[in-house]
Design goal:
Elements (H helix, E strand, L loop, with lengths): L1 H20 L6 H14 L5 H10 L1 H19 L2 H13 L3 H19 L1 H18 L4 H14 L9 H6 L7 H26 L1 H4 L14 H22 L5 H18 L4 H7 L4 H17 L2 H15 L1 H19 L1 H15 L3 H13 L9 H12 L6 H26 L1
Helix pairs in contact: 1-2, 1-15, 2-15, 3-15, 4-7, 4-12, 4-13, 4-15, 5-6, 5-7, 6-7, 6-8, 7-8, 7-20, 8-10, 8-20, 10-21, 12-13, 15-18, 16-17, 16-18, 17-18, 17-19, 17-21, 18-19, 19-21
């Protein structure tokens, strides 16, 4: 039995490493699916267990599908290019002002469209316009990367990891805002201040006061309207404590088809540009966590969490949130969040502990480029654009920004009781 469990842990470890490091430039989802398939083929877990793991992620798959459709529709119709150009022309030659406007744009995009949208579609638009404006792109790129995580718990829809951590049963909007309004504000503000301080030398440089403005097409306006209506729909549904997956998928599909018809463009072209690999990636990770649970490891974590929460809930909440934030950089926050979610469920952890776990899993990835899918996608995007940020270069910024924002946000949540 011990050898059986050790083999599962070894496969899970190697699979997670493959997802993060991407050896031979093989896509993340291939490693996740290969690891999950290996567990089944070797008989380490039964097919029924793998199927149960996959089905657990139903609401997450639907949510991601809807958000990817919305993001790609907006990208294809120039909405994000228009936003980035608007930011440059309102910065009036000040790189500091441009940095602030890009950061605020990232707050809005992350809040209403998820952190992956900021990483995948806002970042390339910012990089392209920064080149046109002859601005140093580095602080603007860091703004996109860090706000994608710092603003990812403003609303339930701001990060797919939120659905994962609450096991698909998100708190109602009113309850969510009561828990996270102040912590998310503190995370956003503190991350901004640290970035301003760390990047102050780069921000002293000037940039072009104007670039050629982009006219927003009818398709771009329709995409914007679709995003606004979807945001209103999801906030309303969240207020009634209902699942967000299916409404998000339907809203994304309707927006994509409607905008494609208006722009007289085949929706199939849109579908081809979407990175569908994220769905099997998440499914594979759900299977891995199900396998790890079968070894008893998550049960042991749950027992320790339950014991800590009973003896001192405040310290349990702060400690577990802090630990998860750092662990997320070792194994990526998606599998870390899945394990934490299962452990918290088995431990019947109090709401305060779960809330702090969510803050940890959302903010922790700002420490390194391996912390979340959003930061990994961000790195791929800037490399395609001719820029690169090394592990240590990101870590030097994250080592200051992440702990400051994390401890401030955790402290704010604990003070709220």
């Amino acid at each position: 039995m011990m050898l059986h469990d050790e083999t599962i842990w070894a496969i899970a470890t190697l699979t997670t490493a493959g997802v993060i490091i991407r050896p031979f430039r093989v896509a993340e989802w291939v490693w996740a699916v290969t690891g999950a398939a290996l567990l089944v083929v070797t008989g380490l877990i039964p097919f029924s267990m793998a199927g149960a793991g996959i089905l657990k992620g139903g609401d997450v798959y639907l949510f991601l599908t809807g958000m990817m459709l919305l993001s790609e529709t907006a990208q294809a119709n120039g909405l994000f290019d228009w936003i980035a150009t608007w930011a440059v022309n309102h910065a009036a030659g000040s790189t500091t002002r441009l940095f602030t406007l890009v950061y605020l744009a990232g707050v809005v995009v992350t809040t209403f469209m998820s952190n992956d949208a900021t990483a995948v579609v806002l970042t390339p638009a910012v990089l392209a316009v920064a080149t046109k404006a002859k601005a140093d792109p580095l602080p603007l790129l860091f703004a996109c990367a860090l706000i994608a995580n710092a603003a990812s718990f403003v609303l339930p829809v701001s990060n797919p990891a939120n659905l994962v951590l609450y096991n698909g049963a998100l708190p109602a909007l009113g309850s969510w805002m009561a828990s996270f309004a102040l912590p998310s504000l503190m995370a956003i503000v503190m991350t901004y201040l640290v970035l301003r301080l760390v990047e102050r030398k780069h921000l002293r440089q000037n940039c072009s006061p104007q670039v050629e403005p982009i006219r927003l097409t009818p398709g771009g306006k329709a995409a914007f309207a679709g995003i606004v209506l979807t945001a209103i729909l999801l906030v309303t549904i969240s207020a009634f404590d209902r699942p967000l997956g299916l409404p998000t998928a339907l809203a994304g599909l309707v927006t994509a088809l409607g905008v494609s018809a208006l722009a007289r463009r085949s929706p199939l072209l849109l579908m081809r540009e979407i990175a569908w690999g994220v769905l099997p990636l998440v499914a594979g990770l759900f299977v891995l966590v199900q396998a790890i649970d079968s070894t008893g490891l998550i049960g042991e974590i749950a027992r320790m969490l339950h014991s800590a929460a009973r003896s001192n809930p405040i310290m349990a909440a702060f400690g577990s949130g802090t630990l998860l934030a750092f662990v997320s950089n070792i194994m990526n926050n998606l599998p870390a969040g899945l394990i934490a979610s299962e452990a918290a469920t088995q431990a019947h952890a109090p709401r305060l502990v779960i809330d702090n776990l969510l803050i940890g899993v959302d903010l922790g990835p700002n420490l390194s480029v391996t912390g979340s899918l959003a930061t990994i996608l961000w790195l791929q995007v800037i490399r395609r654009g001719g820029e690169d940020v090394g592990f240590m270069q990101f870590f030097k910024v994250g080592a200051v920004a992440m702990p400051v924002a994390l401890f401030t946000a955790l402290g704010a949540r604990l003070l709220m009781g």
